Amino acid sequence: MEARLDLFSNPVAGKVFKHFNAAGKAITESSLPAATQELVKLRASQINGCGFCTDMHTKDALAAGETQTRLNLVAVWREATVFSNAERAALELVEQGTRIADAAGGVPDEVWANAAEHYDEEQLAALVALIAVINAYNRVNVLVQQPAGDYVPGMFA
Fold first, then answer.
1. With contact defined as beta carbons under 8 Å apart, do 116 and 124 qualify?
2. In sequence order, what are the residues at sequence separation of 6 or more whose Cβ sits closer than 8 angstroms to the Cβ of residue 29?
3. pLDDT at position 1 over 80
4. Most buried in the list 37, 62, 64, 152, measured by CB within 10 Å?
5. What is the pLDDT of residues 105-128, one digit of tens each?
6. Are 73 and 80 in contact (CB under 8 A)?
7. Alpha-carbon distance 104 to 149, whole Å?
8. Of 112, 119, 96, which is closest to residue 27 (Cα–Cα)?
9. For the residues 53-65, what does the mean pLDDT come to?
10. Quick check: 65 pLDDT over 80?
11. How far is CA 81 from CA 38, 70, 74, 119, 143, in A?
12. Does pTM surpass 0.85?
């Protein structure tokens, strides 16, 4: 499989991704736990069918010390016992924020309130930004059919 567009050499894509990456850096430097960030990126990527990002964030999480068991269970987090209440709240928020078109009225108040019980204002801002940024990356990669499987942790660092 070959991508429809070479995002890595396209000047316009390069300019856009420079800004996406700057937003990502601000999120990474926030107090939102790194493990939560990877779980959120992985869950959004699964929902959006983004093979490239699913591959990347699974491998990055493993390289950062995440367990294979937890990664295997991200897609079925409601039935899994391996996630904290805070992680569960973040996973619910990312699902609702990613599937925003599926529910009239957007993200339900109770989902937001649950997340707000576990995360402070800075962390909520980082979580909202992370959901927006990963969804943008997913959409770009799905649109161009970016192939998955060859990612090596740190290759974009």
1. yes
2. none
3. no
4. 37
5. 789 999 999 999 999 999 999 999
6. yes
7. 36
8. 119
9. 96
10. yes
11. 18, 9, 11, 20, 35
12. yes
- DSSP for the chain? ---SS-TTT-HHHHHHHHHHHHHHHHHHTSSS-HHHHHHHHHHHHHHHT-HHHHHHHHHHHHHTT--HHHHHTGGGGGG-SSS-HHHHHHHHHHHHHHTGGGSTTSS-HHHHHHHHHHS-HHHHHHHHHHHHHHHHHHHHHHHHT---S---TTTT-
d(CA 71, CA 75): 8
Euclidean distance between CA atoms 44 and 39, whole angstroms: 9
Residue 32 · residue 126 · CB < 8 Å:
yes
Instruction: State the pLDDT at residue 153.
Output: 94
Amino acid letter for position 64: A
Residue type at position 7: L
| 150 contact partners, CB below 8 Å, separation of at least 6 | 55
